[in-house]
Amino acid sequence: MTILEGEGLFNDVTALTLYQVTVYSAVHGSLSLPATLGRLAYSTVLALAAGLGIGWITGQLLDRLPTASARAGLSLLAPFAAYVPAAAAHSSGVLAVLATALYLSHTRAYTDDATSRVTGRAFWGVIELLVICATFGLVGLELTSVIRAVGHQAGRLVGYAALICLIVIVVRVLWLAPLAALTRRRARPRPAGEQVPASWRDSLVLSWAGMRGVVTVATALALPHLTAANTPFPGRDQIIFVAVIVVLVTLIVQGTSLPWLITWLRLRVDPAAESAADRHAATIALDAAEARLRERRHQLDTETADLAAQSFYAALADTFPEDEDVSDTQRIQHHKHVRALEVDLLHAAREAVVDARNHHIIDPDAADRLIHRLDLRSLTTS
Predict the structure, then answer these.
(1) Torsion angle of the four alpha carbons 366, 372, 377, 379, in this order, in degrees rounded to the nearest 10
(2) Which of 215, 267, 336, 373 measures 20 to 30 Å from 230, CA to CA?
């Protein structure tokens, strides 16, 4: 998933930049290699400059916003702020958005901003779902008029779509298989955590997972209706028709057969390796926390230090199994029971507050604020 998401991000940006240059040439009725390369360079440079500039401005504003909800709202506006000026200057708005996102992700890695991370993840999960639903909804609305427009050409276009499906599947396999083999050969020994396909089975799954989706549909729908000479854009309806068929075929055929392919190749996540990686990360965190606690013990009374340690050990309790022979295991297992008790106490407290609010015993706003605090605490103990 890490490889697919990263690859998809850069593939989409590259494709959309080329798409914009090609559409510009089609609209203006001329396509020459020197002019296309020049426009591609102009689009790339200007988009990167605009994206990095908007990223810097957004970072300055985020530092000054007091609440996580305000920062989440600004994170929604930032892509539009990067896209609009870049697109207005006839460069790649999508590349500008990518540059803004990468700049912010590398310059705003605040380890203690947990509230913004929790809020942002939930917020963007909803946004992503709505965008996908809206895009395919537009496909449904557009497809009826497109089918009427293509008329008797539908049969021939289905054949073209089948040929394009074959090409995108085969080319992806022919590209990824040798590339993955070369990467494995050059990446030994690999740094811990580096994502490289371990075998030809992994490469085959990555190749088969190249479904087409929202970006393909969106770019087809975004084709202009008219050229610069006020003539219909050549083949617009036919392009949309073929694009929708390619998306449906790849999503249905490749998407539904992917679990079968993984099972047939006998690919499995190694639970022992995953557990070992979790324990390694937790051990690093545990050592750092204990070192900090030793530094500050002279500033704290024994009871306060013990309570702080108890809360931290409870957060890592599930990482170490019962029979794990590591330092502090007994204390961690003890705090598993403490954490289970805390979950039960939080549940009882929430029920009491909700019941009191429903019976008008306490102020509703005060009850909602307290329930929110209890919910945040539940997130840290779940």
Answers:
(1) 170
(2) 215
Cβ atoms of 108 and 75 closer than 8 Å: no
Residue whose structure tokens are 């900090």: 292
What does the CA dihedral 127, 133, 136, 142 come to, rounded to 10 degrees?
-90
Distances in Å between the Cα of 356 and the Cα atoms of 37, 66, 348, 359, 378 are 69, 31, 12, 5, 20
> Is residue 70 a contact partner of residue 48, using CB atoms and an 8 Å limit?
no
Q: What's the predicted TM-score (pTM) here?
A: 0.65
- Tens digit of each residue's pLDDT (9 = 90 or more) over 151-197: 888 888 889 999 999 998 888 888 887 877 777 676 555 554 455 66
In the three-class reduction of DSSP (H, G, I as helix; E, B as strand; rest coil), residue 209 is classed as coil
Respond yes or no on whether the N-terminal peptide bond of residue 189 is cis (omega within 30° of 0): yes
pLDDT value for 356: 83
Interacting residues of 328 by C-beta distance below 8 A, sequence separation 6+: 286, 290, 313
DSSP 250: I
CA dihedral 170, 171, 173, 178 (to 10 degrees): 140
Tokens describing residue 193: 């955590």
356: number of Cβ within 10 Å: 16
Rounded distance, CA 8 to CA 294, Å?
Answer: 46
Task: Render 1-60 in DSSP notation, one character per residue.
Answer: -HHHHHHHHHHHHHHHHHHHHHHHHHHHT---HHHHHHHHHHHHHHHHHHHHHHHHHHHH
Q: Measured on CA atoms in the order 101, 103, 106, 111, is the torsion positive or negative?
A: negative
Tokens of 127: 């946004």
Q: What is the pLDDT of residues 217-227, one digit of tens each?
A: 888 888 888 88
Q: What are the tokens at 97?
A: 């958005």
User: DSSP labels for 170-199?
Assistant: HHHHHHHHHHHHHHHHHT-SPPTT-----S
DSSP readout, 337-357?
Answer: HHHHHHHHHHHHHHHHHHHHH
Question: What tokens appear for 268 in the block?
Answer: 């499995």
SS (H, E, C) 202-265: HHHHHHHCCCCCHHHHHHHHCCCCECCCCCECCCHHHHHHHHHHHHHHHHHHHHHHHHHHHHHC
**Among 148, 130, 133, residue whose Cα is nearest residue 240:** 148
Residues 6+ apart with CB under 8 A from 124: 75
Report the 10 Å Cβ neighbour count for 150.
19
